[in-house]
Amino acid sequence: MQSNKRIVLAYSGGLDTSIILKWLQENYSAEIIAYTADIGQKINKKTIIKNAKSLGVKKIIIENLKDIFVKEYVYPMIRGHAVYEGTYLLGTSIARPLIAKRQIRIAKKFKAYAVSHGSTGKGNDQVRFELAYYYFGPKIKVIAPWRLWKLNSRTDLVKYAKKNRITIPKDKKGAPPFSVDDNLYHTSTEGKVLENPKNAAPEFIYQRTAAPEKAPNKASFVTLGFKNGDPITVNGKKLSPGNLLQKLNILAGKNGIGRVDLVENRFIGIKSRGVYETPGGTLLTTAHRAIESVTLDKETMHKKDEIMPKYAELIYNGYWYSKARFKLQKIVDLKRNKVNGSVKLKLYKGNIIIISRQTKSSAYSMKKVSFEENKTFNKSNIERFINFHKKKLR
Predict the structure, then answer these.
(1) Beta strands in the chain (DSSP E)
(2) How does 16-52 read in b/e, with b if 16+ C-beta sit within 10 Å?
(3) CATH among 3.40.50.300, 2.20.28.10, 3.30.230.10, 3.90.1260.10 for 187-358
(4) What percent of the chain lies above the pLDDT cut of 70?
(5) I need a labelling partner for 287 at 20 to 30 A (CA). Which of 42, 56, 221, 224 fits?
(6) pTM
(7) Active site positions, annotated
């Protein structure tokens, strides 16, 4: 290997990326730098280092990006109420741009000529990674093993791993694992029995959420405080973005909140069935809409709802760093400085019930909505209002 020729691999330490690491060594005369972005996934640094070293890697970089991930990626997305195809809260989609950005930074720092990822040839992540690579490092080569090698199935991967003495993890039933992606915002599970949409998802695949029927019989309550559109406190206690989301994940997960079983339309043109768990994110999305309902005017709220499907689709398709997404983000954040206050939620067996909304905003007027007679709302104008809109029917 030539020490002056380097490839930076997005490395999780798991089966797929360990196989990719070995394959890169076999097919490219280059030093492999293993890069792991810690964005809240289940991570064992000792295992990552051990697995990489066992494959001859000398430079292993693990970065703690949890707070950056939540503050600069998850929170802006929640302010936009982004939901893809009415169901998916974009947990995998929002993580890839950050990982790719930092990967290119490492590549530039160590003068690597290429970067590599472990996304499959049928998935969306290859697009998300590579669009971000291009944005930050257009001259850096991209190596996508799944589009190059002859390992065409998970069975082939297992055979290759056994041949090269790469550890093969097992699922809870003792078989090779499902395809799992996780970060602080969510966990997704795909493959195996889930590929056939007629099959029910087995209960043992769920990692973050209790089954609603097995959740506590007593409700939990949580109050979220917002400032400038972002959550800053849980039950009055100020927390860092990463710790705040983690606390909500635990609270919502034990109450059976955040499970989604969906069939989505991938950007590349095929359908995919997966199970997603986004407990804390589900709470934040509900609470954010609730606080906006008493702090923002109708026109602003409706404009956000109007652009949301396109905004969500841009994120899903990997266009986080596009001019189109930046433009929509400005609309999303136009009046975020008005979104201040708190929302109290009741959590019970998979359900989220809004208990109260508190704010100093004047957007919601108790005098105007009161059923008691008052002079703040001129009802005589209503007839003219209706007559004006009658004309629009013709």
Answers:
(1) 6-10, 31-38, 59-64, 114-116, 141-143, 179-182, 187-190, 220-227, 230-234, 237-238, 259-265, 271-277, 341-348, 351-358
(2) bbbbbbbbbbeebebbbbbbbbbbbbebeeeebbebb
(3) 3.90.1260.10
(4) 93
(5) 42
(6) 0.92
(7) 16, 96, 125, 179
